[in-house]
What we know:
globular
Amino acid sequence: MANQSHDNRSNLTSLINIIGKRDVLEAEILNLLAELKKQNVTMTEPLVDEEGYPRSDVDVAAIRHIRHEIICKQNDCKELTKKIEEDLYALHAEEKITPSASCLNVHEVSFKPFARVDLVDENSPAQKADLRVGDLLVKFGTLKYRNFQNLSAVAKLVTENLRKPIHVSVLRSDKVVPLILIPDEWGGCGYLGCRILPIDS
């Protein structure tokens, strides 16, 4: 039994690391998509004119490179997601130790943050996770702009995941930064030690 418990902890640690790697990939994809957005192009927009010549209004070579990077990272993301799903099954997914294993779909990406970090207490779980005042929440566990309704959803997710990792992505200085937040009792108010305010649509 002791060996089995040790194996479970080892498998859980491995799973958390894999999810962290996938979160980094998701953030990198978002940042690359932001680069495309700056050039006013999408993943599928033609890079040649009506006569078949390369467009002169955009950096065609740079855009092709960015698109290639996005596709490669998406493929890596899918592979990691497959591994996560396999590991979750092995660890009894009904225990819900992680957010959804669904991979980032480039066509579903929303750059719109849904909440802002307004205060971070010292020595709190939020500070340990490197949450900072002014960070804009793009992802908080399973919550994103498209399914966020109010802060009660954040509170519910936190209480359901005490002492478990919540994968968070924040928009900071025009870059998406992936973080791992572990809510817990810490000697201050709440389980996070930060104040989050919704962003009005």
